[in-house]
Known about the structure:
heterotrimer; A: about 240 residues; alpha/beta; Rossmann fold; four-stranded parallel β-sheet; globular; C: alpha/beta; 2 domains; four-stranded mixed β-sheet; 12 strands; about 20% strand
Amino acid sequence: MKVSLFITCLNDAFFPKVGEAMVRLLARYGIRLQFPELQTCCGQPAYNSGYWAEARTSAITILEAFEDSDFVIAPSGSCTYMIHHYEALFKDNPLLLDKALKLKQKTYEFTQFLVQVVGITNMGAVFPHKVTYHPSCHGSRLLGARQEPMDLLANVRGLELVPLPYAEDCCGFGGTFAVKMAPISGAMVSEKVDHVIETEAEVLVGLDMACLMNIAGHLRYRDEPVRVMHLAELLYEGVRGA
Amino acid sequence: MSRQDNAAGSVKARADLALNDEFLRKAVRFTTERLRRGKKEAAEEQGSWEEWRERGRQIRLHTIAHLDYYLNLFADNARANGVHVHFAETSAEAVKISLEIAQQKAAKTVLKSKSMVTEELHINDALQAIGVEAIESDLGEYIIQLAGESPSHIIIPAIHRNRFQIAELLSEDAGMPLPPDTSILAGYVRKKLREHFLEADIGMTGCNFAIAETGSMVLFENEGNARMVTTLPKTQITLMGMERIIPSWADLEVMATLLPRSATGQKLTVYMSGITGPRRSEDADGPDEMHIIIVDNGRSNQLGDPELQELLSCIRCGACLNACPVYRHIGGHAYGGPYSGPIGAVLKPALQKNVAEWDDIANASSLCGACYEACPVKIPLHDMLVYLRRRKVDAGFGDKAEAAGMKGFAAAMGSAKRMKLAVKAGRLAQKLVARDGGIRIRLGPLKGWNTYRVAPILAKRSFREQWRELEHELQAELKEQKPDVQARMERAIREREAGKGGIGHD
Amino acid sequence: MTEAVTHAEWLAQKERESRVKQEAFLKGISSRLGRQRSMTPPPHPFKGAPDFWNVMDYDVEHRMTAFVDQFSAAGGHAVRFPDMEAAAVFIAERAIQLKARRLVRQDQPELAALDLEKRLAEHASVTAWNTDSGTAWKTAAAEADIGIVLADYAVAHTGSVVALSAAHKGRSVSLLPAALFVLLPAQRIRTRLGEVLAEFDRSGRAGLPAGIHFISGPSRSSDIENDLTIGVHGPGLVYALLVDAFVPADRMREGGGR
C-alpha cells in the first residue's frame, strides 16, 4: 500500500518540521510515508486569483506525482480542498479530469486521515501547556474537519485547551488577498490576534500553516510571545516528551 | 441627492475609509454579531436545518430551471386577478413604466416600502426628476433617505449610523430637537409617516416571493409599512426581480422557514402578507389599481451560465453579510452598489455584462466560505468569486504586475526541479533582508504583508532537501503495522472503489 | 396624460404592449436556458416542506400552549378564555383601562355578538367595518384606538394569527389602530405554517382574497442601532384572545348578524 505525503509548497520551503513530524508520527503506527518528488504546488494561489492556466501548470505536477498512490496525506485543509477544485480546472480535458477525480477520492487532510481512516485519536502525547486552537476555514467549513482535531487534542495529557473566541472567523490570510487587500486583511488578522491574546494561551495550534504563518507574523509584529504550531508538530513533540 | 457618490473609486479605497471609521466597524460588528447569533439559535431550534436548506435550494433551482414556464404562469394568473403586468428588460425600461404610471395617475407622492430592486433602478431620483416625491417608509430607509445615502445592509439599511447621528437627522426633519432615544425617534417617524400613508397617491413595493400558481405576491416585514403601502394608496406598483418566483403556497412554507431565520433569527417576521390582485370591488381598502413590473436588469446574464445560474436562487436574506468577516470590517458602502457583502461582491459584476467595467470588488474576499455556510439556499458564493476573477483575467483586465507574478509562479511550479531552484534563489535573496529569523522590510510584494506582519524566512533546508536523510533514519523508527490499522486502510480503499467517498469526500 | 386617451384606453394599450413583450421576454429566458419555451407543468418533486416536518401534528391543547408561548415571546399578549362572553368582558375592561375612545371591528356576527357597543356605551364608540358607503373607512380605522378582528386561522409553531380580507373584513382593522385584539377560536389553530398555506393552494387563484395577512406579534423595528422598538407603523399592543368554546355564526341561534 502506497501512502504518500503531499507536503505542500509552503511547508516544503518554510516549515519542513511539519512534514517531519507527520512522517515520524505515522511511522509509529507502521505507516511508511513516501515522498513523491515530482510534486510542487497545488496551484491554489493562481487558481484563486483567476489565473487558471498557470494553476493547471502547477496542478499537473500533483496529478503526476500521486498517480500511483493509494492515500495522499497533506498537512493542510486548504491544499487538500484545492484538489477538489481540479474537477473545474480540468473539466475540458477528459484524461486529466479522470486523474483529478481519482486523486480527490484518495487525498486526505492529516487529522481526517488519522482519525477517520486509521482510527487513532490518542497518540499518547504529553504537552503540559495552555493551548488554543484556530480552525482554518477551508479545513473546517469545506472539508468538515471539525471534530478530528478536537478529539486528538482532548487526548493529549497535561494540555489545557482554552476555547478561542470567535474561533470560526477567518484570520484574514486568503492567499493573495493578504497582499491585494492588505488593509482589510491586516484588520482581520489584528482582530484574530486580539482573540488569541485574550485566551492567555502559551501556544496557538492549527491545521494549516498558511493561516498560522499569517497569525504568527502579526503576533511577532506586536511582539507577543505566543508559540504557533501545527497540530502534527505539537503531537510529535508530545510523544517524544512522553 | 448623490446616491452614487460612494460608488466612485476602487473597493480598496472605499475600504480604507471604512477601516479608519472606528464607529462604523464597531456598529457593524455589533449588529451582524447579534443577527448571526439569532440565526444560529433559530436554525438550531427548527431542527434538521440542513434538510430545510437542501429543500430550499432544490425549490429555487427547480424554479429557475423552468423560469419561463413559471413566469408565464405567474403573469397570466396575476392578470386574471386584475393586475396590470409589465415586463422590463433594463432598469431604464422599468423606470420608464413606473414614471408613466405616476404621470397617468397625476401622482404627487409615491410611498415606498423597502425594496432592493428599486435601489438597483435609482427610482427615487427618477421620480424626483419629474416632480414626484418618493418617500421611504421603512424606518431604516427613511433615515438613510434623509442622509442622502444608499443602504449599507440588505436587512438593516442604516446599520452604519448611530442613534446620535440619527437623532440629528430626524431633528432637522422635524424642525425641533429630538433626543437620541430609539423609541422617541421611532415614534416621530411613525407620526410623520402616518400622514403620508393616508395621503400618498401611489404605494411602491418590492416582492419577496411571487407565487406562480395563483399570481400572488408575498411580502415579509416587521414594521407594518409594507402592509400600509399595499392597503392605503389607490394605486400599487410592485417592482419584482424576475427570479422572485416560487411555484406554490406549499413552497412558501420552506421560504418562510428559511428567510426570517436567516435574516433576523425570527421564526417568522411580524407580518407575512400575500396580496392577490387589487381590492375586490366590494372591499373598502386595498388599491384600486395594481401594477407588477417584472425586471430583468442583468439577471438573465446568469441564466444558462453553469457557474453563476445558482445566483438566481438568492432570497436576499443578508445572512452572508452577517457571516462575512470582510463585510464586518468595511461595511456595506465599500461595495459601491445596492447589494453589499459576499452576495454584492458577486452580484455587482454578474449583473454587469461588460467585464471592462468590473472594479476590484471580487477581490475583496479571503474566500473563507463563511457566506456559503450561512446561505439558506447553499449558493457557493466563494466559488463564484473565483470564477469572476478568472473571467476578468481571461478577458485581459487583470492586474499587470499580478499577471507577471503568476507567470513566474507557473514557471517555478511547473516542475520540481525549477521549484527547487527558485527556493534556493529565494534563500540567497533573503540573506540580504532577514533579521532574527524574520523579514520586516516593506518593499515590493512584501509591502502589503509586512505593513501588518513580520514575514517568515525560508527554512535552511527544505523538506525535499532533507527527505533522503529522513527516509534513512525512519527505517530504524518504523514500527510494525497493526492488523487493525491495515484492515481499516484496506476498507477505506474498498469503499472508495465502491463509490463511497468517505470522510471529507462527496 | 394625453387628454384624448382615457386611463382605461391607456391601460389597454399597455396590456397589448405587455403581452407582446412577455413573449419576447420569456423566449429570451428559454433560449438562455438552451431550450424551447416550456409550456407544460414541469415535474416538481421537491414541493413544500421536507417529509419529516409534515408529520408534525400537535393536539389541540399543545397547539394552544405552543401558540401562547411563541406569540408571547414575540412581544404579543396571549390570553385564554372559556368562551366568547369571557373574552368580551376582558376586551371591554381593557378598552376602559386603556381609555380607548374609538374601536373599530370587523363586521362579523361573532364579533357583533360580543355586544361591545352596549358594554362600552358610556366610554367609547364601536364601529363595524364597511357598513355604509359614506364613511372614509381607512381614515376611521386610522383614528381608532383599538381594532378587533376574528382570526381565520392561526399557526402554533410560529405564533401567528391569520386574517383574510373581505368586504366586511378590512385589512386596515388589523393594521391602523394603535392596539389590536384578535379573537382566536381554539379549533382554528393549526400546528404548522404549511397546513394553513395548503388551504390557499386548495382554494386556488379564484378563491383567494386580495389580502392574506399572517400577524405574529406587535409591529417592531431594530433599525436604530439594532435596538428593538415596538409599534413602529402597525399596532404596538397586540392581544390574541384564545377562545376554547367558540360557536361559529352559522350555528349561533341568535346574535347580531349582519
